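Problem 12. The chain below contains 197 residues. Write out its predicted structure in token notation.
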Amino acid sequence: MHKKLMNSPGKKSKLNVAAGFSVAELLIVVALIGIVTSFALISFLNANKGFKLAGATRTLSTYLEKARVDSVRRHGGANINVDSATSYTVNIDFDGTGTTARTFTLPEGTSLRYTLPPSTNIIDPSTTPLTITYDWRGRTGTTVLLTLTDSRTGVGSSTVSVGPVGDVSTDTTVTGPATTQTPQTTVSTTSGIKSMH
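Solution.
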């Protein structure tokens, strides 16, 4: 004897209920994933451009330091020629056989300009070339502020400062040469000294 089971009309069998997402829900999820991915991609591209600019700045400052050290080691003669907005030439003893010139090209979209503080005039090296020459003590004699700029949006600029004593610093501002400080107090050379009699 078989019993017949009757389904009540208000209850559905669990086997007949289809679980899942509707097409509208799937479209919303896909659109949200697309928006988040596009923001992440834009941020990544801007960060990548910033890394390239920072790398170009570090490379330039490294070769300025190498030229300074090479000039001290060989008693002068090392220099860096900045005669283009997209490259510079380093003249140092790279391999121990004498001065060799190597040209370094900046990353795409990066340009190089300079100022001679205290002047704030920005100079294009392709029209007015600059040679940073170190003497036998590693000094340059003048202050130069080199600025590397990325022409694309979302990336700023970076600076390399070369001081008159040859010191190199990055991402600093230079407003002018240092002035000699005047003494705050005058000390008498004769008062307060005991007699040696």
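Discussion. The domain at 24-170 is CATH 3.55.40.10 (minor pseudopilin epsh fold). Students who got a different answer should revisit the alignment rule from Section 12.3.
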